[in-house]
Amino acid sequence: MQGRAEIVVPVRAESVKTARDWAGDVLEKWGQDAYVAQVVVSELLTNVLRHTGSASATVRLLQTDRGAVVEVCDSSDVLPAAGSPELLSEDGRGLAMLGALVKEWGAQPLGGGGKAVWALLPDGSA
């Protein structure tokens, strides 16, 4: 099955829930389990909110030959990097968590500026 859906949201705290709920609705229509995708959407969009200064973000769901992909695009050129947080730090664990949930993830610059951060979801979930 090939599919593609996207939503553009303003970068505000309430948009994380909006995008997460949207992803669940789309994947339900596609007949797929949405839990991992919703966690990934939440994490990636929260990173945009906390680290980029972007006014809006585009969230995409893609069905590819390799599996389902979540992609979040923003206007920042700074690529994310997994951190090594201090033991009691409240920050810096999101990308490590993302790596544990998905088959693989990455980030790439966009031609007109900004970046896309993507995650290939595990088989059986989307």
Automatic annotation (TrEMBL):
Q: Which residues form the Histidine kinase/HSP90-like ATPase domain?
A: 10-118
Protein known as: Anti-sigma regulatory factor (Ser/Thr protein kinase)
Q: Which superkingdom heads the taxonomic lineage of this protein's source? A: Bacteria
* Key words of the record: Kinase, Serine/threonine-protein kinase, Transferase
What's the source species for this entry? Actinomadura meyerae
| PANTHER family on file | ANTI-SIGMA-F FACTOR RSBW, ANTI-SIGMA-F FACTOR RSBW-RELATED
Q: List membrane-spanning regions.
A: none
> What are this entry's molecular-function GO terms?
protein serine/threonine kinase activity
